[in-house]
Amino acid sequence: MSRWRNNRTYLLSIENAFLKMNNINRSSLFLINTKQRIGEWTMQNVKMTGSFWQHYQDVVANSVIPYQWKALNDELPDTEPSHAIKNFRIAAGELDEEYYGMVFQDSDLYKWLEAVAYSLQSHPNPQLEKDADEVISLLGRAQNKDGYLHTYYQVKEGLEQRWTNVRDNHELYCAGHLIEAAVAYYESTGKSELLQIACKFADYIDSVFGPEEGQIKGFPGHEEIELALVRLYLVTKENRYLNLATFFVNERGRQPHYFDLECKQFGRDQQGWWHGNYEYSQSHIPVREQKEAVGHAVRAMYLYSAVADLAELNNDPTLKEAAENLWHSVVHEKLFINGGIGASAWGEAFAGAFDLPNDTTYNETCASIGLAFWAKRMLQLEPKGEYADILENTVYNGSLCGMDIKGERFFYVNPLEVNGESSCRRRDHKHVLPERQKWFNCACCPPNLARIIGSIGDYFYTQKGETFYVNLYGDSIAKLYWNGQEVEFVQHTMYPWDGAIAFTINPSNSVQGNLAFRIPGWAEGEFNITINGENAAGEEVVSNGYLIINRNWEKGDQVSLLFPTKAKGIYANTKVEENTGKVAFTRGPLVYCFEEVDNGNNLSTIFIGDTSIKEVKNSNLLNDAVYLQLTGSRLQDHSDDLYSFKKPYLEEFTLTAIPYFMWGNRGKGEMKVWVKQQI
Amino acid sequence: MSRWRNNRTYLLSIENAFLKMNNINRSSLFLINTKQRIGEWTMQNVKMTGSFWQHYQDVVANSVIPYQWKALNDELPDTEPSHAIKNFRIAAGELDEEYYGMVFQDSDLYKWLEAVAYSLQSHPNPQLEKDADEVISLLGRAQNKDGYLHTYYQVKEGLEQRWTNVRDNHELYCAGHLIEAAVAYYESTGKSELLQIACKFADYIDSVFGPEEGQIKGFPGHEEIELALVRLYLVTKENRYLNLATFFVNERGRQPHYFDLECKQFGRDQQGWWHGNYEYSQSHIPVREQKEAVGHAVRAMYLYSAVADLAELNNDPTLKEAAENLWHSVVHEKLFINGGIGASAWGEAFAGAFDLPNDTTYNETCASIGLAFWAKRMLQLEPKGEYADILENTVYNGSLCGMDIKGERFFYVNPLEVNGESSCRRRDHKHVLPERQKWFNCACCPPNLARIIGSIGDYFYTQKGETFYVNLYGDSIAKLYWNGQEVEFVQHTMYPWDGAIAFTINPSNSVQGNLAFRIPGWAEGEFNITINGENAAGEEVVSNGYLIINRNWEKGDQVSLLFPTKAKGIYANTKVEENTGKVAFTRGPLVYCFEEVDNGNNLSTIFIGDTSIKEVKNSNLLNDAVYLQLTGSRLQDHSDDLYSFKKPYLEEFTLTAIPYFMWGNRGKGEMKVWVKQQI
User: Model's pTM, two decimal places?
Assistant: First the structure.
């Protein structure tokens, strides 16, 4: 069965599947109005055809997903067992063992299932689908009859203890990942078993939490279920899911604080493991009052994603304002050049505004991926080029860096600078690993990478009213609904290595409407466009970072775009004290870095003045990759003295920079994104 | 009774005092051969006459000592009680309360007594001496009849528990401070009561620890007693003290490791609170095998001081080599420009070679003071200008910075850079306070400052064979024995503000010998000298950083020295990655820094090229202080954008630098020693 199917037929088959559902505790289940929402919210039929994303989707299908499956089944040598699947077996009464793992161990399996769902679209794999179906069946057997499913409480603490610590114990977080997996698996395969399990759990949660007498007025310590419930609402049109997501967001940070009440009720230490700092979980004040992004960065991204969702779906201007304020805080005050966020290892959290340390930052891979989730939703809330710019930045530079080229080694933490050995010995650097790892005990990042790579097509286009927005560029074919027509969108491009995009529109019938192409921020407003080979004089309008063309689009219409990708230096605001007097280099959407393997050690001695940059093709690691060559200088000592009145001198040499996301593929060593300027 | 007395008479009075001792468990007690050792090891009659050191000795006498006395007596409002004196009262059976405080709380009182001893020399104070005598009498009453004195075990754990955790529980450390206080108080006042208490404790320790059957083959987790026992040996000539110090140093780091054996014997966790890392206490390998300075910096300094002592007194070339190797490691690889040491807050410890972070360093005040202790002993082991250079550096720049000008506020940690607010919010910066504190719960630094300031005269001169070395310069009068003569040495100078020193030698009778004047490293070999107003052509030899003049010195002979103090830039080796491309400024022995109060905030934006430096007198904080004015530039943004392709530009302005040790006297704000160079 081909995954590349007509959406309409496909969704009808899902409808039939839903009709068969009879064992879930829900009053009604509406299916999405496909015409209205396709291209906006559901999984999109966007197929990657160029080598860049194909490579990464291959790697996910052939390496990450099988490897993680082994991890989930405790089949990896030299690695701590995951025990995730065993925990479900125990919960199902099919295995007599003790619970093992983190309190959120279940989510490892859910995220794997979600990644599998996306991967099956581009890489059909009957054995993998069979494995997934079997494990889904296990989830059904493990699920409590009331719908509850969280093996930590089912196996270890006892069901009577559930919901006694929503602050720390991740029941709602795991439920969110179950729901996301269910929606994705349902959209991808048309199979509804997992969706039924998720709905049953969501219905149960909806009965436990809420504003009514006897319901818990709480919210999760780790956000995730909010955005998941929105996805569930969008696929089922069940308003209760939207309302429950809204309830969780509205309750967050209200006084009296639910986490305090919960502690009191269950006699727990009020301080909790996170020192009573509610900024950590973005629950220090009500969401609408939050203006500064604080606390655990991944949690923040998941919350802000839901805030953007709800602002749009509930048409709530107060939530829109909150989302915009928080966006400003993150993007204009707390963002690393590569779309990394979370400058503080302590709490895996945001630091103060402009506090962006290159070498001790946390920049969790999951946080950058979370920023992509959020940016996608901000685009849906309001189409603005800035949202897509950040989306592009965080996908290429902040997320892919978390995995090596082969998909076999990972970074959890993504510094912009790794110094020599003595700095690796520093205690305050111990979270910064100079070498990619096989796996992590807290295995959140690799499956998150698999999720975003597998579903990257979902980030390419949005539709708002009559306008169809092209946010990301990449060699691909999409089949989407637009203004009542099925339209094929074809991009031919070497992006991100080249800024030329040949765009072909093939509507089933001619279609009238705005087609909006993002003008990347890095292009600084410069672009070249032709429509069907002719200059589009007068036809186009530039608005909000998009080039908008209104016309009657015929089958075979071609738009040729050219954005200048010439490599250039970029500078941080001087408020970022780490980077004053430094320069980084970008080319097109990519941020570059200098590695020891190319440039020798002690990269701190390198200075770069105004220099021409030579662009060099190098396919050693990735096809068509472009490296940069620059003339720089290295500071040299006159003697071995630790301190000297004699000023060190500069010696010229040729430097090589490679795309940041490709670093750490050629052995251990120093790395720097920001280098000193010769001022 | 004047503290300014003839040494010979004074020591005879001490001899008489010793003869009266009859209640201590010692077989013999020899007094120092005054002629042989005076000017080398005992407290020297060096009186500060110029305003610089007089100011600091006044501050210690009038502020630090009375304030600390109140602290010891729990009379300070808004401060956690010390309870130190109460603990002794409880031990003496005169108070019925619980023990309170650190396990080394006793040492606070001992260090205060030692500081009092020094201060009484320059600032006679009958009431203070009475208070000290009374508290000494309390110590006698608190002392166990076998000589043991450590209130933590006497009051809290029970005597049967003593010596069960010499790794962590500081009994030997406190004993060391008791001994140092006793030696100082005895030398200063001629009173022997405290010395008797110390000897009684030392004798008891000597019976418990040692190589014989049934004796503990252990050594202290926190070194201190080793150097103290040497001091006790030097004042009593009792070889057992020297041998016990030697025993402790020799046992350190041997396998099987005593800390392991102790853990096993007393059923304690092998790992201990310091994670089983024996580098922390410099006991990872035997002392003679140690080549790299590691672990807790204060502990290291106290150990290395004893190593230098024992290398000389035991004439042990293997220990001399160890001392020299460790000196090289500290001074050529791990030293901050200001004589600060201990780059790692984790463990208050040395970091790797050349790992010298300006803003997160620990640089405990006590560690720099400890480096002065060690440098003094290295000078005694072998006269080398470098030892005196480091001594001078660490005293002026690394120690005095720990206290404000008024002696009322202190720094425990001494960064070379304090950045803006967001950096203060960083978890990895939480040990770095941007503002001086009134007191610390772990109150080691203020009394240590009082000790070194009070005894600064002891660091001015050393004698080795027939040569008399002048190590430190400062307005002072000394009365010392040299080659059989009592000689008055008079320095008239504005040092450290000026490099001109008028040196007058007044021997009781003419004396033949080498007088060696240190040529400061910062003078880069340049100096001007006249003897009795005439150029000393040919008479002088430069050796090991000293200018040596051999002649028959007559009363009133004058040596005029002039070292150029012109302010200049200094550069770190490029291996110090924190400082590549940066410059610091020095003038004479002083390191300078830039404060926000003079230069505005965001000091990271400041660049300094090759510029002339204007020296400006400013007596607002300290008489005759010299500030520097330089032309620099400040990097300015074109916009508020977090990142921009537009390069920031430079704007010239006038910068002011003040001596580093004077920073933090004018409110809270940023500070930087190293600023960026315009390269």
Answer: 0.91
